[in-house]
Design brief:
By secondary structure, the protein is mostly helical. It has helices spanning 3-20, 36-48, 54-66, 99-112, 119-133, 153-159, 167-176, 181-188, 220-229, 253-259, 266-273, 279-288, 290-305, and strands spanning 195-197, 239-241.
């Protein structure tokens, strides 16, 4: 074999190898499904007309997907003979939502580009569209993920950050996924819209950490409001706004709320109230500049979207997001 042929063959092999574990690309569907983002956007805009919460719910689905085995669409799989669903994990059960909208998006995408776009990528696109439609930043979503053929219930129980966990615990959970403190503070800003059930923060309202008193970092006026919404021995599934000021808008009010001791979750307030924490200066920076927050949020969403994707020939393109092909 001539040296030129050898170099060509080596290059072809190298490209083949790269292709089997390719990096994600914003241009991944440019030739195979060029209108995928507008298809996703149209379905979400339709859903928004009857469900103002749907944008926050879709962002959360992507987050909870990525933190378990990477961004692989595993959160969408329902119970079957081979699947134990992640939807029954403590962080998800009775609270993750938006699955019907994901199914509607998948149907619309399949009608236009059958067998091409993964459910994992639909979640990534839906997250960006949801943030943008709510007044937040836009970014170039990197694409090319494939769908898992397995779910991981125990991983969902152990890896997803919980609203009642300490800053050190949540920092460790982010670090385990390759995300740093800046990513933690940026992505926590996703709590600038949407709702939460009382069960996620009632531990702060009456008997915080076994003290018999409320969490001392809670603004007392805000505390009284939350106690009215979530009385002792009341329903744990009652909903309240994550951001009491602009509940449906993606903005930087979340960080001003923390400065006013109005973070709803313990995990939110600890970003600012933990003495000496490196998160404090980031919270203050994002509170003073919405554009700085938006830039950092977009970058951190891309970082999160890069957690352990299945690419190349790994995984599959599910035809139904709820089920493994042939399952």
């Amino acid at each position: 074999m001539s040296s030129t042929l050898l170099i060509s063959a080596t290059l072809a092999l190298a490209l083949l190898f790269v292709g089997s574990d390719a990096q994600l690309s914003a241009a991944f569907y440019n030739s195979t499904c060029p209108n995928v983002t507008s298809i996703v956007s149209n379905v979400i805009q339709q859903a928004l007309q009857s469900d103002v919460r749907i944008t926050a719910s879709l962002l959360r689905l992507h987050f909870h997907d990525c933190f378990v085995n990477g961004c692989d669409g595993s959160i969408l799989l329902v119970n079957s003979s081979t699947i134990v669903t992640e939807q029954d994990a403590l962080p998800n059960v009775g609270s993750v939502r938006g699955f019907g909208v994901v199914d509607n998006i998948k149907t619309a995408v399949e009608n236009s580009c059958p067998g091409v776009v993964s459910c994992a990528d639909i979640l990534a696109i839906a997250a960006e569209v949801s943030v943008s439609l709510s007044g937040g930043p836009t970014w170039n979503v990197l694409l090319g993920r494939r769908d898992s053929t397995i779910a991981n219930l125990s991983g969902a129980n152990s890896d997803i950050p919980a609203p009642f966990e300490s800053l050190s615990t949540i920092t460790s959970k982010f670090s385990a996924k390759g995300l740093n403190t800046n990513d933690l503070v940026s992505l926590s800003g996703g709590h600038t819209f949407g709702r939460s059930q009382c069960r996620n923060f009632i531990g702060r309202l009456y008997n915080f950490s076994g003290t018999g008193s409320p969490d001392p970092t809670l603004n007392t006026t805000y505390l009284a409001t939350l106690q009215q919404i979530c009385p002792q021995n009341g329903s744990l599934s009652t909903l309240t706004n994550l951001d009491p000021i602009t509940p449906n808008t993606f903005d930087n009010n979340y960080y001003a709320n923390l400065q006013n001791n109005q973070g709803l979750f313990q995990s939110d307030q600890e970003l600012l109230s933990t003495t000496g924490a490196s998160t404090i200066s980031i919270v203050n920076s994002f509170s003073s500049s919405q554009s700085t927050f938006f830039q950092n949020f977009a970058s951190s969403m891309i970082n999160m979207g890069n957690i352990s994707p299945l690419t190349g020939t790994n995984g599959q393109i599910r035809s139904d997001c709820k089920r493994v092909n042939g399952g």
